[in-house]
Specification:
The complex is a heterotrimer of chains A (189), B (409) and C (160). By secondary structure, chain A is α/β, with parallel strands linked by helices. Chain A has four helices and seven strands. In chain A, the strands form two sheets. Chain A has a five-stranded mixed sheet. A two-stranded parallel ribbon of chain A has the order 6-7. Classes of the chains: A alpha/beta (189), B alpha+beta (409), C alpha/beta (160).
Amino acid sequence: MAPEELIETIRERFGDAVLGSHTAHGDATVVVTPEELRNVCQFARDEPQLRFELLLDVTAVDLSKLPEWETRFELVVHLRSIENVAILRIKVPVGEEDPRVPSVTKIYPAANWFEREVYDMFGIEFDGHPDLRRILLYDEFEGHPLRKDYPFDRQHPLVPLREAWTPGIAWKLEERWGQYARDRGEPPA
Amino acid sequence: MLEIVENRQPDVHQTPAGDEIPVDMMTIQMGPSHPAMHGVVRIDLKLDGETVVDSDVHIGYMHRGFEKMSELSTYNQVLPYTDRLNYVSPLINNVGYVLAVEKLLDLEVPRRCQYLRVIVSEISRISDHLTCLAAMAMELGAFTVFLWFIKAREYLWDLIEEVTGARLTTSYTRIGGVAHDLPKGFAGQLSKALKDTADCIDEVDGLLSKNRIFYDRTRNVGVVSRDRALSHGWTGPCLRAAGEAYDVRKAVPYSAYDELDFEIPTCKEGDAYARYAVRMEEMRQSIRILKQAMAGLPEGEVRVGDHRVTLPEKEQVYHSIEGLMNHFKLIIEGVRVPPGEAYHAVEGANGELGFYIVADGTGKPYRCHARSPGLALAQGLSPTINGSMLADIIPVFGSLNYIAGEVER
Amino acid sequence: MFDGGFLTTQLDKVIGWSRKYSLFQYPFVTACCGMEFMSTACSHYDISRFGAEIPRFSPRQADVLFVVGTISHKLSPVLKRVYDQMCNPKWVVAFGACASTGGFYDNYATVMGIDRILPVDIYIAGCPPRPEAVLDGLLQLQAKVEGRTTGESGLVQTSG
């Protein structure tokens, strides 16, 4: 099934809930409202001519460093139809305040760990997820590292760190930690 | 490290004679520092005797921020990070990543380059399956298989070293091509290495496939039906072992796979033995692909001539100002990829390995996400081992081929 | 003859010499370097030529801790605990760039070198190190076990 047809089928069924679509680089992409996400997934899985049986991936993008953006995050779901050899990308805008989307684990159980990863990395919460907790990082970790405002090397050690062997490295680390304190507006230690 | 935790309520166990005896559930932590858990997975097990009642798989001990690091690197600088995703078959990751970027650039690479990518991918796939089966067999006590398969893997790694200059972390591909052409005399080396490897696979086949101990420990262990495998998001050999002939190389052919003749081995049983059998057969198919690809290797360039993407020759860099500036701009700013998003999948050794890249028009990826097949496999582990025996965890876990770099990125 | 500690120094030499050829290793394998560790242990490179072929997966039985691969902050308590459980005398080898310095994973998740957690005896460079480099590191460690080292740098005395 051609990507254009695919989008047309979904537009016909969901009308205004489809906020946008494109077929750039051959991947059919639809942007839908959070309320309709589950219905779109259900439709894509069960409709005889679509049969998107395999959920490939759930991830998110923090849009806040792009030149133009409306909502802070965007949830991205990739579906694969084995019968029709097609890919469908469903995108959902997620706001900055209280980021929250419905979970699709009831329709695709495979979404379980992928949604946990998105929660871990972006702090987006999934309503109706059976077991929403951090997966790759640990409970003591503060913040969500794939957000664009998270500094790439802010660490949360679990054991007390020793003095580094190389004095140069120690100096570099001290300087960096001081820089974080200044970034956060804290007085220097 | 075993840790026995205070128990909750005693459950009741019924003996064959019909007597009821109260049984305390035992909670045991398996891993992360456990020889069969690859050093990086912890399973919290709730045991009734030796039967697993409940399990909770903890991953993330090897999360090292691939996606964050790739946002800080130019497009070509991401390549070394992709090596270390699935570090048993780094070349497939290299190929998958550059194909995703080339999809964003709408770039068609020369035929010879496409064939080279197929050749290195298939060598990698064999080495990945060899390592997976070697580790699985060793964990079940067949240490000889481990030694033999690692020996075969050395033949292939010698080839990879000839081509890329490194044994393991290759970074061979570039956006718009590959780093360099094959060395002289490669065809002869390849056919010799393939013959040695095929001999080794046959030897192990004779040693292991009908081995009573190995068969009993893997047959009907960790059975996953086709529908359940799909509902876990499984792809690759584990899905094919459950009877679904889905292979990205056939479904959505990339590079030169549409011109090569090979079969997709499948099994119906969906147990650990089927996953072993599928991997064994896939190695033979990969050898078949390699022979065809080497025979049909076209002549020509290995990179596109577009200097917005590929580096100029060293001659030009040192002898002309245009070449020097071109080199400088490409290295410092990176390849400028037009804004957009693309997902491209390749058939990794464990299943569909996809890269989802969002570009914002600069020389660095705005977001680079790897769809790892291993994460889906790992989330199917807990439902698969629940209800089985404690000792069955080892073959099930081994047959899933947990590669921490890929799962946790 | 026996007053100047001759016997004890000679005994130390004998013990050091015998220790160095029977190192039981605890492979704390996490990442890519583990592949090269497997290569080194197997028949092509054959680490057993140097008496270090037996991996012990119990820290109580191991002499040398091979930290092979990246150590993330999540894993660091485990590593610390394994090290603490090992009996003296014990040695630590940082295998590869990530274990030595954190490598190019200079980010929120990774410990920038295991020497931030434990004392390290030998650093093996490479990402991952070639098996030859691993064997060289092992020989350096053996020299250290035998006591043929000088100063804090831990470099091997070439003469004598």
